[in-house]
């Protein structure tokens, strides 16, 4: 995955944690839409892995 893609995903994750979902989508959407198949698979894996983290964070609150 390109560094710029990972940086955008991490920023979007941080915005999501701050309940700023619209901004998170605006940050992540361009990199998701321009990803090739290989990077798309990496993005999907990254999102799946972090979705579990978000669910765990919510359970501990």
From TrEMBL:
This is Uncharacterized protein. The lineage of its organism: Bacteria, Bacillati, Actinomycetota, Actinomycetes, Kitasatosporales.
